[in-house]
Amino acid sequence: MKIYPTHGLTFFISFFVAAVATSARAADGWRELFNGKDLAGWKANVYPDSWAVVDGTIRAHATKESSHLFYVGDGKADFVRYKNFELEVVARGEPEANSGVFIHTDLVANGPAQRLAHGYEIQLNSTVKEKRKTGSLYAVVDLDKSPVDETKWFTVKITVKDRRIVVQINGQTTVDYTEPENVVRPPERKGRKLNPLGGAIALQGHDPTSVFYFKSVRVRMLD
Q1: pLDDT tens sequence across 48-70
Q2: At residue 19, does pLDDT exceed 50?
């Protein structure tokens, strides 16, 4: 009886399974923004050495004040605009760490701490000092208790549809907020609004004492 080598068949099966998985992701509309290898498609607004890829994850560790990593795609523009979408981020932090995910934002920053001036921040935070906890829509809908242990991987899902923002942490809804028309914010947060044209997705490196990791960032358009 003749025995045929199986390595070719094994390769074909692996290739077929990978192709089917890729096709399924494309069919359901999700697009991975982080390739797991490098920061291609991403760009820091300041202090680029605050960002690195470590063990297949994006590590955020601000070297000075704060830094934000913007999704820029092919790099032909300063950032990619997203208006109505679902964003899913898988993250974890070191103990006593602060970070965030920004939506509908841009490159404009305020003050020496380089905090982003526009859009909304979904808070990621396990520090005692900061009272706004993970799952908050920062300074708009705030939680005083975190729904997760941030030192373990957790999933943040953010849905933006017209004027409505929904935040879920590990499937638990922490925010369901509809921005009023002609909303007025306090002067120090006047830019905390949705942009009718959409805006950038950005990750936050909060400060030199905080370290966060992101192993998946994916988006699905709702337009």
Answers
A1: 999 999 999 999 999 999 999 99
A2: no
Domain count, the chain: 1
* The residue type at 155: T
Q: Report the candidate in 115, 87, 125 with the shortest Cα–Cα distance to residue 211.
A: 125
Structure token pair of residue 88: 């899913």
Domain membership of residue 14 (yes or no) is: no
Q: Is 22 within the bounds of a domain?
A: no
Backbone phi, psi, residue 17, to 5°: -65, -45
User: Residue 11 phi/psi, 5° resolution?
Assistant: -60, -45
| Alpha carbon distance 82, 204 (integer Å) | 17
Whole-structure pTM value: 0.88
Structure tokens belonging to residue 43: 């760009």
Which distant-in-sequence residues (6+ apart) come within 8 Å of 39 by Cβ? Answer: 51, 52, 53, 58, 69
Return d(Cα 45, Cα 42) in angstroms, integer: 10
Calculate the CA 53 to chain-centre distance. Answer: 15
Asked if 51 and 34 touch (Cβ cutoff 8 Å), the reply is no
- Establish if 195 belongs to a structural domain: yes
The enclosing domain of 197 has a CATH number of 2.60.120.560
65 CB contacts (<8 Å, ≥6 apart)? 46, 47, 112, 113, 114, 207
Report yes or no: 71 and 199 within 8 Å, Cβ to Cβ: no
- Confidence (pLDDT) at 112: 76
Range of the domain at 161: 32-221
Answer whether residue 13 is part of any domain: no
